[in-house]
Specification:
Length: 362
């Protein structure tokens, strides 16, 4: 095939020239960024259609960093779900600011290799979501990690964990991902955890005898990581281990906190809330001063439909159940009852179980 060298030269010239064109004609780029960054997130897709420079800007770390530093970030909720009929995972996103028109939208393009895996972790750093580990009926635990860039709407393969894991704890603390315990560890020391640093784009492995293997939940509060495990004995026993970043060590916590941690958790204003789904669904709060669990409210058995997961945006707690049914609770710290309002989000046309929910702010 004969090509025209002038066409290639013209294309390169056009791309070079476009990089030097102003974002907005007649304005310095810093002023243009000041203006564009204030466009609501729901219109960012439209901005990306204007030009290549605008698209590159909206997808860039510079854009994300500018909006965070100037308190312009808007948090959307991402739910990892499983369809029991197909036994496949799927991912959905919700813009909670569209109150009346709020609806879940499906995210396409999940990596085919992880569609039927179980025991995967779901975590965030900045504007990226991570799918980590997991296993299947005919597949041992894996160390694979996949990354979804929310701004670019693309999936890619990320550096693998130091250890293959499934059904493990996973949190983001101080901009690093901690993958903790779990099953399928191909090592002589199963009491281990891995940390991922996005600055070096690499994992580092650690071990500690106090790490629990069968982890059901994990959360960060007050600069510490809490992981929970529950035995299958009757009655079941709950074990909680705490990691203190300042000491770099894990230790078992006392029985007071373990006694009431019986479900999914969320942290609001450095206070931990638990959704107890053992007898109906009720929201509990951990009172640090008295070291006891305080019941706040009981939820309707119809909305949201259990089993549920929780996520927080500001002082609002989103309780999301089967079929992505959801209730929003607004926490008022100054009120003795601490609960000032509740509302619901319309059901989505699916019957999936919700595995995990996370927020990403852009």
């Amino acid at each position: 095939m004969i090509t025209d060298p002038s066409a290639s030269s013209f294309s390169s010239y056009s791309e070079t020239e476009s990089r030097h064109l102003p974002l907005i004609s007649g304005l310095p780029d810093d002023i243009a960024l000041f203006c564009l960054a204030r466009v609501p997130r729901k219109y960012h897709t439209v901005l990306k259609c204007v030009s290549k420079r605008w698209r590159d800007l909206v997808c860039s770390e510079e854009w994300w960093d500018y909006r965070q530093k100037n308190n312009l970030g808007e948090s959307w909720i991402y739910a990892l779900c499983r369809d029991k009929s197909t036994d496949q995972v799927s991912c959905y996103v919700l813009d909670p600011s569209s109150s009346r028109q709020a609806c879940w939208k499906s995210i396409c393009g999940l990596p085919p290799r992880c569609l039927k895996r179980k025991g995967m972790a779901f975590e965030t750093i900045g504007k990226k979501l991570y799918l980590l580990g997991g296993c299947g009926w005919s597949e041992d635990a894996t160390d694979e990690v996949y990354c979804y860039d929310v701004a670019m709407n693309t999936w890619s393969e990320a550096p693998s964990m130091s250890t293959a894991r499934c059904y493990f704890g996973c949190v983001n603390m101080d901009g690093k991902i901690y993958s903790i315990g779990g099953y399928g560890l191909e090592t002589s020391d199963p009491h281990s955890w891995d940390t991922y640093d996005p600055r070096t784009n690499s994992w580092e492995s650690h071990s500690d005898p106090n790490i629990i293997l069968d982890i059901e939940d994990s959360v960060v509060m007050g600069g510490k990581i809490y992981i929970r495990s529950r035995t299958s004995t009757i009655p079941p026993h709950v074990y909680i281990a705490v990691y203190d970043l300042s000491s770099g060590k894990w230790q078992q916590t006392d029985a007071d906190m373990a006694s009431g941690w019986l479900g999914p958790t969320v942290v609001v204003d450095d206070t931990i809330y638990v959704l107890d789904q053992s007898l109906g669904s009720k929201l509990m709060m951990w009172q640090k001063n008295t070291r006891e669990w305080i019941p706040l409210c009981r939820l309707s058995p119809l909305l949201p439909r259990p089993p549920c997961q929780m996520v927080a945006i500001g002082r609002k707690i989103f309780i999301i159940g089967k079929g992505l049914s959801a209730v929003v609770l607004d926490i008022n710290v100054g009120n003795a009852d601490r609960m000032i309002a509740s509302s619901s989000i319309p059901n989505f046309s699916c019957d999936d179980d919700v595995i995990c929910c996370k927020c990403v702010s852009i």
